[in-house]
Amino acid sequence: DIVSNYCVEVRELGYRLQELISQSLGLEKDYIKNVLGEQGQHMAVNYYPPCPEPELTYGLPGHTDPNALTILLQDLQVAGLQVLKDGKWLAVNPQPDAFVINIGDQLQALSNGRYKSVWHRAVVNADKERMSVASFLCPFDRALISPAKPLTEDGCEAVYRDFTYAEYYSKFWSRNLDQEHCLELFKN
Ligand code: OGA
Ligand code: NI
User: Fold this and answer.
1) Cα separation of 91 and 122, whole Å?
2) Using the 8-state DSSP alphabet, how is residue 141 labeled?
3) pLDDT of amino acid 154
4) Which of 5, 23, 27, 61 fits as disulfide partner to 178, beta carbons 3.0 to 4.6 Å?
5) What does the DSSP 8-state code read for residue 187?
6) Most informative mutation of 132, 133, 177 for ligand 1 (most atoms within 8 A of CB)
7) What residues are neighbours of ligand 2 (ion), with CB under 5 Å?
8) Name one GO molecular function term (predicted).
């Protein structure tokens, strides 16, 4: 019951964020939700055991999330998430009563690069285990991902070609997670 309530609430939060992101781009409130259609929702409960030599490995190597929007619940006791900013990895320490929201590759493409899908990774820890709960909102398979029209006017070229989410997703998993940004393969 707890997990299913959590999934419902997190989905509502994701929809609200998608509405606000649409509006921030000067689009109709429902624009992003309409493009993404009946969204899939995946949950990963990540478990990172303690590692005696944490500098030799990662819990998760650097990657961007291939979906639209990710809502991450962090372990309050143990930090581990890092994001890449200006070429440097910065720790995102857990905050009470806060989620981490990751923009995924699909929102970068839909916004014609205005929103950035963040590079992030998880490091491990010598003596403490860590858990995190990631909820991924994903476009439906046949969703056509293409830059919103108003964002490609006034001399702004479309940065990426059109693709379906199914095409993107299979390309994403045919590479290594920490290779070049998968979106690069869809550049115009
Ligand atoms: C993920 C992810 C980070 C974390 O599951 O995609 O980036 O802190 N998790 O566990
Ligand atoms: Ni991730």
Assistant:
1) 9
2) T
3) 81
4) 61
5) B
6) 132
7) 65
8) metal ion binding
**pLDDT for the residue 180:** 86
Ligand 1 pocket, residues with Cβ under 6 angstroms? 44, 46, 60, 65, 72, 80-81, 120, 122, 132, 134
Give the Å distance between the CA of 87 and the centre of ligand 1. Answer: 19
Q: From atom 8 of ligand 1, which residue's Cα is the shortest distance away?
A: 81
> How confident is the model at residue 178, as a pLDDT?
72
Backbone angles phi, psi at 146, to 5 degrees: -150, 145
CA–centroid distance, residue 120 to ligand 2 (Å): 6
- φ, ψ dihedrals at 23, nearest 5°: -65, -35
Q: What is the pLDDT of residue 148?
A: 93
Q: pLDDT averaged over consecutive 10-residue blocks of the chain (188 residues)? A: 97 98 98 98 97 94 95 95 96 96 98 96 95 98 95 90 96 84 94
Helix H or strand E encompassing 134: strand 130-138
Strands (DSSP E) contained in 14-169 are 40-48, 60-63, 69-74, 81-85, 88-91, 100-103, 120-122, 130-138, 144-145, 163-164
Tokens describing residue 68: 């639209």
Place of tokens 């070429």: 87
Query: Are 182 and 105 within 8 A, CB to CB?
Result: yes
Atom 5 of ligand 1, nearest CA residue? 134
Give the tokens for residue 22. 């649409």
